Amino acid sequence: MFTGIIEEIGVIQRVNSIPGGLKFTIGCKKILDDLKIDDSVSVNGVCLTSIRVDNDSFDCEAVGETLNKTTINTLTVNIKVNLERAVRLAERLGGHLVQGHVNGVGIITKIVKLGDNYLLALKIPNELKKYVVDEGSIAIDGISLTVAKIINDEVEISVIPHTWANTNLSHKEPGNKVNIETDILAKYVEKILSEKNNSINTGESWVNKLGYQ
After folding, report:
1. Model confidence over 11-45: pLDDT tens digits?
2. Helices and strands of the chain, counted as H and E runs
3. What pTM was estimated for this model as a whole?
């Protein structure tokens, strides 16, 4: 589990093919303080596992659905990526709950500088629109951001200078693809309402469904 508060911008140093996937060597410094083999790391919002760690880089692998559903398969040498270690339960939750399970890929349609801030607009898949609300949370390439406005199939986000300077957003441009993870709370609400509607339609009470008499 992550918070969407990016700790460091890493750089892809090597990309190697492995059976059924890709292995990445990512150069970084800050997150290596206590990173160990088998630890989870959010790489552009995708939860990956470290398989090698040294003084200035770590390796991770991506296979199967991770390659099919995210932008990980587009990473090449020298591309900058957002990095975050898994959250400790004793720490403050500065962003929102981010699983690192990407729901879809969006496309940046506009980047506009507004004073010291930036307006980021992106087109999201139709099936994700129902999970996004004004002033709600969304993770873009693993960054916890707040939705400013929804216009049809586009989401507009205001980005503060600190976030712009300390993530890979400053290296993006219109047309770039980004990983999107919607707020997990919206999915739980959808599931609960779906179960409730099914119970009403079938005449089954929630009390019986939970095993109580």
Report:
1. 999 999 999 999 999 999 999 999 999 999 999 99
2. 4, 12
3. 0.84
